[in-house]
Amino acid sequence: MRTVLMTGAAGGIGTRLRRLLKGAYPQLRLSDLKTPPDLAADENFVAADLADLAAVEKIVDGVDGIVHLGGYSIEGPWETILSANIVGCYNLFEAARRRRVKRIVFASSNHAVGFYPRSRRIGIDDHVRPDSRYGVSKAFGEALGALYAFKHGLRVTCIRIGNFGDAPVDRRRLSIWISPEDLLQLVRIGLDHPDIRYEVFFGASDNARGWWDNAEAFRYGYRPQGRGEDFRDSALAADAKLPADRVGDWYEGGPFCSDEYDGDEELSSR
Ligand SMILES: NC(=O)c1ccc[n+]([C@@H]2O[C@H](COP(=O)([O-])OP(=O)(O)OC[C@H]3O[C@@H](n4cnc5c(N)ncnc54)[C@H](O)[C@@H]3O)[C@@H](O)[C@H]2O)c1
């Protein structure tokens, strides 16, 4: 990989990851709707709206790989999700095909599978169960990735990010947390590993309470260093202050599941 584009570079993950990626990919091009407030003099930034295909074609021109973090990162009104995450994601993949980009690493989410009960361990062969319009947009991105990989020859890695940060901050996050360094490992596998064609990984550190079988990522050499249990006491203390949430505490997606919930009284055990 010579030139790598990062979308969503002004966001929470982009801000951390672009510093970590700099050493590995000196020709890093950054993009977002808005200029990162902490942009350094040696960083190369080009603003673009993902919903504008012509603008997206310009930012992908001449790049070998893309780390696609840009988009609306929580639940939102349909029009917002449609524009940033559905149209935006399509534009990104289509522009990459037209400009012959080789690889895309797509920031998917645990919310693509949020409606599995926490009692169940799932792998990447379990079908999607989005917990929100946002989660649907991530499942859509994973499907687009498969289309562009198998039909057009792009090499695509989808990372279902759990929760990114320096430490897990509550009980749910003890199961799904990923450290910045561990996410960097997964992104680098997606950008560089010679055997990648189309893969879905779970973006989680080494969490003893994890719900996901991440065998595929391990097969590619992923060796997470972060351990959620190291933060057990602080996370559980913070959790004790949260109100009970019958639906959200049952399913993996947490509050994304209980938000707008008017389903059956009986929660699924399958
Ligand atoms: N933070 C997490 O724990 C987490 C978990 C799962 C998935 N993800 C995914 O990872 C990615 C990055 O997450 P984050 O926490 O940094 O989110 P964030 O909201 O902090 O950053 C997203 C960035 O995308 C940009 N953006 C939004 N709409 C855009 C558009 N139309 N065109 C161009 N740029 C646009 C925003 O300006 C923002 O800077 C997102 O796709 C998110 O869905 C994050």
Q: Any idea what the radius of gyration is?
A: 18 Å
The mean pLDDT is 97
Bound molecules: nicotinamide-adenine-dinucleotide
Class computed from helices, strands and strand pairing = alpha/beta
* Quaternary structure type: single chain
Number of strands: 9
Shape: globular
Portion of residues within helices: 25-40%
Uncertain runs:
none
Q: Kindly, what is the distance between the CA atoms of the first and last residues, rounded to a whole number of angstroms?
A: 42 Å
Task: List the topology elements.
Layout: E1 3-7, H1 12-22, E2 27-32, E3 44-47, H2 53-60, E4 65-68, H3 78-98, E5 103-109, H4 133-152, E6 155-161, E7 163-164, H5 171-176, E8 177-178, H6 180-192, E9 198-203, H7 215-219, H8 232-239, H9 255-258
Parallel strand pairs: 1-2, 1-4, 2-3, 4-5, 5-6, 6-9, 7-8
Helix pairs in contact: 1-6, 2-3, 3-4
Residues 8, 10-14, 32-34, 49-51, 69-73, 84, 88, 107, 109, 161, 163-164 line the site of nicotinamide-adenine-dinucleotide.
